[in-house]
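Pasting as-is:
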Amino acid sequence: MSAGNQQSVVAGLKYDLRRMHETWMELVYPRQRGAADTVLGKWQPDTQGGMALYKLWSAIGVPVIGLIYPFVLLGAMLRFGARGFDSASTRLGLVGVVLVSIVIWGALAALGRFGMDLRAGGFIALLAAGAVATISAALALTFKRVGGRAVTVALAYPFGVTAIFLPPVVAALYSPAIADLVIPGSDNLASWLLDNLAFGGIGEYLVENFDRDGFAYVIIWFGISIPIGWVLGLLVTLADLVRPKE
């Protein structure tokens, strides 16, 4: 890395940390964020007691920001990847995205039917996976275009994750070969979730009343995709708050 790039990275880190600390200060005190270079400057208390509390709040913010900032960096990296999808989807449009997905999955299905040595059901499995991926991608793009951060985080990101996670599971319902690869890991993950993340007896209720078989794995992965999508969306939102895209 050149010296110029290193200086740019350091300057970016300093900017982020300063902006986050000013935001922390503004939770309690007025005129903190972006006020250092203004005519009035940052607001500060005019009493010794007030200044002591001001400095105490400032000091408390340092470890808090230290804990949060790695998530900001992760969100910035995720945002960089999301920009590529946004740019491509904008050029293609909703119809273009659907057509591209159909062409890609149709080609994979054709390979599964004529060129690949998949066991019985491989062709149907790839068609089903392609249908799920296409619908999920179309829904993600639709909700993204609706606008608004809440809709994007609540719906667009989860369906985007669904477009990645769900197709292999759907394909496993039709192909024993794919099922041998997907179902054991899904079963282990479901067992871990029921043992560690279920509250109020929910895990025991699910184990006693539902069998982990067939379509249940689709429901499991759809349920996993939703919170993962929320987390990714919130991380990107955090990065936007600290360092807006413009």
